[in-house]
Design a protein that fits this description.
The chain starts with a helix and ends with a helix. By secondary structure, it is an all-alpha fold.
């Protein structure tokens, strides 16, 4: 897996390093390759067990990471966050207008990779991308209202964060395995919502040296983070994370080999971090 991850990083670097942004601001290449590759590793693990060729898996994993990086560039502009992946946020590095353009370019680079590995996935990504934007917009509306119910929070989390996890989980599945693709997509939504809950707590409790990003910066969204909504609604965040992870895993019980890869991924990359952020259930 380590070798595949490095190939994904190499493809990310190659995609960005020849752009005018990288010529003037070399740190934007570091930003693009400097993520945890959580979504990429999900693609790589599922793609391998599904028998996809290595080139397909690497292209798809890199495309997912480019979309994620693009969303972070734009999120930091909206939030006014000044630090990301241990570097100045892109809008601080290159200015607001250029950062918007850089984020747009990352997205189009992702489309180019997707077209190379499987053009059919472009429609799937466009659908998921619309859901990400819908989730962000619904979050803004809830913030304007001054708060939300837990069920509203979960729906937003599944859209804004879960959609890309859903794409990463479902995209490696061949077109003729419709039921498995659907269940992996739904599992991805649940996983992404659990991750967002933990990330909200990390934003409150984490320090910049540990997380590599600005903490507690998003004042626009006061009242709609998991921390505040759970407290207001009397919900156990740790219990909800556990429930969502169990829901995701149970959807794959008819495909034991897929479920085993899923369980291994969650245990290695996510469960410990989530437990630390929200506390033990």
């Amino acid at each position: 897996m380590d070798a595949l991850r490095e190939q994904v990083r190499g493809l990310l670097e190659g995609s960005v390093s020849g752009t005018p942004f990288a010529v003037r601001h070399p740190q934007c290449v570091q930003f693009t390759v400097g993520g945890k590759l959580l979504r990429a590793e999900l693609v790589l693990g599922l793609g391998e067990v599904l028998g996809r060729c290595q080139r397909f898996n690497i292209l798809l994993a890199a495309a997912v990471e480019l979309v994620h990086a693009a969303s972070l560039v734009h999120d930091d502009i909206l939030d006014g966050a000044t630090l990301r992946r241990g570097l100045p946020s892109m809008w601080r590095l290159m200015g607001m207008a250029n950062a918007v353009l850089f984020g747009d370019m990352l997205f189009f680079l992702a489309l180019r990779l997707l077209a190379e590995c499987d053009g059919e996935l472009l429609e799937q990504l466009s659908r998921m991308g619309c859901r990400i934007c819908e989730g962000e917009y619904l979050q803004e509306l809830q913030a304007e209202k001054g708060g939300s119910l837990w069920r509203d929070y979960l729906e937003i989390a599944k859209l804004k964060t879960g959609a890309l996890f859903a794409f990463a989980a479902a995209a490696p599945v061949p077109q003729d395995r419709v039921e498995l693709r659907r269940e992996l997509e739904l599992a991805g939504y649940a996983l992404g919502a659990a991750y967002q809950i933990a990330d909200d707590f990390l934003d409150l409790r984490g320090d910049c040296a540990t997380t590599g990003k600005s903490s507690g910066q998003d004042r626009r969204l006061a009242g709609v983070s998991a921390v505040e909504v759970a407290q207001r609604c009397g919900v156990s965040p740790a219990g909800e994370v556990g429930r969502l992870l169990a829901e995701a895993e149970s959807r794959l019980e008819h495909w034991p080999e897929i479920q085993e890869v899923w369980k291994d991924y969650v245990e290695r990359r996510l469960r410990s971090q989530m437990s630390q952020c929200v506390g033990e259930a």
